[in-house]
Amino acid sequence: MSLGLWFATKLDWLQGYSQVEGVDFDETFAPIARLESIRLLLGIACILKIKLHQMDVKSAFSNGFLQEEFYVAQPKGFEDPHFPEHVYKLKKALYGLKQAPRAWYERLAQFLLDNDFQRGSVDKTLFIHRTGAHSLIVQIYVDDIVFGSTNPKLVNKFFKTMIEEFEMSMVGEQNYFLGLQITQSSTRIFISQSTYAKNLIKRFDMQTCKTAYTPISKASKLSKDEGGQAVD
Q1: Burial of 188: CB neighbours in 10 Å, binned 0-12, 13-18, 19+
Q2: Contact 6, 89 (CB under 8 A)
Q3: How far apart are CA 45 and CA 37, in angstroms?
Q4: How much is the average pLDDT of 18-40?
Q5: Which of 106, 124, 146, 204 is the most exposed place for a label (fewest CB within 10 A)?
Q6: Which helix (DSSP H) or strand (DSSP E) does residue 230 occupy?
Q7: Residue 189 burial (CB < 10 Å; 0-12/13-18/19+)?
Q8: C-alpha distances in angstroms, 115 versus 1, 112, 127, 128, 180?
C-alpha cells in the first residue's frame, strides 16, 4: 500500500515533488496532440466542410481515477479538531500529483471508447465516431477538446454527452488554439499567428525597436564571388 503524501507545509499540503517512482506512481506520461496533428485536423475539416468547435474541462486533473492508494495530510486551517492526526484517503486525483495528467487522459479516453469512439492508431489523442455516412472527430489536448462533425446534430449530442459526465464549458467555434488564430468560413479556414508574434515582441520588450524590411543592412555592398561554384 502506498502511503503517498503524509506531510504538509505552510504553502502546500499536497507535495507531488516528494513522490517516489515505483512507490507512489508508475506511469505519468499523458499523450497530447502535436501541433502537426492540429494543422492536419484543420486541413481535413476544410476538405470535409466541418465546422470545428472547442470545449474546456473544468478542473480536468481532479477527474482522473487513481490506481494507487493515496493518503494526504489535512489542509492547514481545516484540521478536524477531534481527529487532528488523521489523514484523508483520495478517491480521485488532485492537482500536484505526478500521475494526475495520465489519470485524466485514461478516464477521458475510456469514456470516449465506451461511447463507441475509435482511438487513432498513430495519434492516441484523436477519436472518431461514425454514424452511417457521418463522422464526429474529437482531438484532445489536455483539458481542451476540439471537435466537429459532418452532421451538426452529432456535435450537439456529443456536447450533451460530455456535460453529463464532466463539468464542461463550451468555448464555441474554434478561433484560437496553441498560438494559432483560426478563422473558419463556409469554404476556407485561415490560420495566422499575429497575436502570438505581438505577444512575443511584448514579452522581450521590443515594442520600441526599429522595424527592418530586409535581413541585412541596406548599406551593405554585395559583390560576385568569382571563384565560387555555380548553384542550381
Answers
A1: exposed
A2: no
A3: 12
A4: 66
A5: 204
A6: none
A7: middle
A8: 33, 5, 11, 11, 30
